[in-house]
Amino acid sequence: MNQTDRDTVIFWFRRDLRLHDNIGLYHALKENNNVLPVFIFDKEILDELEDEQDMRVNFIYKQVIHLKEALENLGSSLLMYHGNPIKFFEALEVAGVYTNHDYEPYAIKRDNQIQALLNEKNIPFKTYKDQVIFEKNEILKEDGEPYTVFTPYSRKWLKKLDSSHQEPYLIQSFYRNFKKIQPVRTLSLSEIGFKAGQYDYPSKQISGKIIEQYETNRDFPALQGTSRLSVHLRFGTISIREAVKEARKYSQKWLSELIWREFYMMILWHFPKVVTSSFNSKYDQLEWRNNEKEFEAWCNGMTGYPIVDAGMRELNATGFMHNRVRMITASFLTKHLLIDWRWGEAYFAKKLLDFELSSNNGGWQWAAGCGCDAAPYFRIFNPYIQTQKFDPKSKYIKKWVPEFQEIQYPPPIVDHQFARNRALETFDALRKEKNTVTT
């Protein structure tokens, strides 16, 4: 494609790596001929990643190659670009640019800059809601303020939902409007600064059986009781409409998890301060211990608490951690060790295949007791009781910590009762201090 091509319309793939049921792509193809898809490997994001074999970059690259092959089977192709998106669009003269919304602070800033740039060139920049059912200001309280508690938000979300929200956007009849070109050059992983790794990614097939049994099995990490679809929702290899349709058919509990995802996206949109600060700002005054040696033991799965260590080792080995165990490990770091939730959040952000800023941030602040709709500060997960309840035969633990009953396994890094009392005293002291100031 020439840099100047006023007959071409760009569709910019981002968190929507699929041809089917893609709202922005649907509108681009319905309204235009000569639609050329583009994927930008954004240096502003990729340069922050430390691991040359990053699982997420490998996953994205694999999906982009699938898209390119599918488009070439339709007589079109996918333009792959590595660099700064703003520079890409600075050099471009086209008929229009279509894409789907992104709600994270960096993406909002980037998109605003690109919109201003394209406006100067009289190039339309059209974006659409695709990765959620309801966004931004679509679910608000009666006074017009955003919800900060999940349950009433969820009630309003469910009340507003109807069958139209799960209907797919049928794009196939417009495939003829893709730009007909010869296959363009494929960028290699090494050209974008990464190396291939051998990873076993979860299937994007939605299993009705797993979802139907989700409420019963979801808390047991030794079972295949969760959908493992979070990475596909994160990068848009399945559509949220597909997921909601299956949830309504099989499981209200799984639907509730999809609503939690949108709740945290809404919180991030309305309260971007949560990226670096506690939602409940008084907890920014908390005196964290931040012991680096203990943090390293937690990261490496060597705390002497088998359920915690199993979770961290699973994360380090696979990029996945079961949701129940995520809560246990997060509670342990913030309450037992009194290490700042931001340390744990950043570690998960580096390791999780399904890392999504809003959900990761919301989950960590929930566990630490400093977020919106958080677990109360005095709720401190007891790793032993959690093990008895959710891994009673130690099947999960044995898989990831086979030596947990051997002499070489480390003793507990801290006594549970001592740690619990210390956390309560620390949080209580802050609460009393704030009460004194306000009264």
UniProtKB/TrEMBL annotation:
PROSITE patterns: DNA_PHOTOLYASES_1_1, DNA_PHOTOLYASES_1_2, PHR_CRY_ALPHA_BETA
Keywords for this protein: Chromophore, FAD, Flavoprotein, Lyase
Pfam families: DNA_photolyase (PF00875), FAD_binding_7 (PF03441)
Organism: Splendidivirga corallicola
Record protein name field: Deoxyribodipyrimidine photo-lyase
Photolyase/cryptochrome alpha/beta domain ranges (all copies): 7-133
SUPFAM superfamilies per UniProt: Cryptochrome/photolyase FAD-binding domain, Cryptochrome/photolyase, N-terminal domain
GO molecular function: deoxyribodipyrimidine photo-lyase activity
The keyword Lyase appears for this protein: yes
E.C. designation(s): 4.1.99.3
Names of the cofactor(s): FAD; (6R)-5,10-methylene-5,6,7,8-tetrahydrofolate
Family, similarity comment: Belongs to the DNA photolyase family.
